[in-house]
Amino acid sequence: MPLIVTDYSWIQTDSTVFISVPLKGARAERVDFLSTEEYLKVHYPPYLFEAFLSGPVDEDRGTVKVGNGVAVITLPKRSNAFWEHLMITTYDKEKKKEVRERALLKHQEKLRSQSGSKAEKQRAEKKYALETMMKLEQEERDRILKRKEDEREQTTAELAAWQLRQREAAEEEDKLKVQDQRDHQSKLKEKTEKQDKGCWGGAKFKLDQRGNSEAKSKRKAVLLPAPRCTGNIQVKFTPRVFPTALRESRVPEEAEWLQKQAEARRSGNADVEELKDLREEERNPEWLKDRGDKRFASGDYLGAVNAYSLAIRLNRKIPALHSNRAACHLKLNNLHKAIEDASQALDLLTPAVVANAAARARASARRGAAFCQLQLYAEGLQDYQAALKIDPHNAALQADTQRIRDILQGSAAETQ
Length: 416
What we know:
Blueprint: E1 3-4, E2 9-12, E3 16-22, E4 32-35, E5 39-44, E6 47-52, E7 63-67, E8 70-76, H1 93-196, H2 202-223, H3 251-266, H4 285-297, H5 301-314, H6 319-331, H7 335-348, H8 357-373, H9 377-390, H10 395-415
Parallel strand pairs: 1-6
Antiparallel strand pairs: 2-3, 3-8, 4-5, 5-6, 7-8
Helix pairs in contact: 1-2, 1-8, 4-5, 4-6, 5-6, 6-7, 6-8, 7-8, 8-9, 9-10
């Protein structure tokens, strides 16, 4: 049986009622408040304060402040007027019971509405996080496809130019062969004529010799290639692996990263006994990675996880395998596994250089998305800020980061 509190006090203005309820040593976190437009309850076991108010109040704008052992309740009135009494003066227990039950029902309905709104907000945030990840993945796929298309067009153009040069060389060679055949026929004809006219005089013979000599000179002139045309030779230099200016480059870090990449390509567990039954291509991590990428693009996320997992068993030092498997776990809602894989990828993507900047941004964004789906918005914000620092002009990352800040600010406001 609760102890009814009677040593309360109250004051009023024409628009507001102020009620002071002593808490009698109770801690603030153990005090339960319930307020509707006609009923007020303050319960801190074993004490209970109830007020069946004389007039309606606006419970949505009411406030409670607890301090120095007193709870001060501020209730704005629905209409500007002075009350003669704080509570109704009736002693009808049934009426009070009806008011109490009506207040409880209204309070429960309000809690259900708030719970539904919160659940809807969480679903909207989860959907937004998934859409963001899908958008990032689609942008990455589009970028790769565009690069492949550009390389294909360049190769086609180079092949067409080479074929044109080959045709021109063949045509020139055919012309020379035709000219040689004509010269040979002319020579045979002259030789035949000489045999038929062997009785000609010495003067005629000398004339023929001079004519043959001139014909030979003409043939030699025809066989000689034409002078080369003048022009400029285009010289192309092999680009640096890291396009950073030397005075701004991080040469030791870049060298360390290249060494790690080389070690990752050399390392592997292909000789493990349980992997002996695999086909030759299935023991190639790069082949398995391409297979996982195709499965992911087709929506078979579980198949992609299996391909990446087998590749990781063969070689654990390739960062892309862990990062891509994290993206699959995000699709499958395996959030803790996604965080673990993204963290492993970030550990392998060290030291931080220009060559692995894009991969670090993707891994950070994926881990941040997993944190946000677990409602760990502070941790997620840190990862999104790290990705945004690498790619500051990415509009999608900017929008996601701002959205997470808004969620955190809204949570802080609700707590206050």
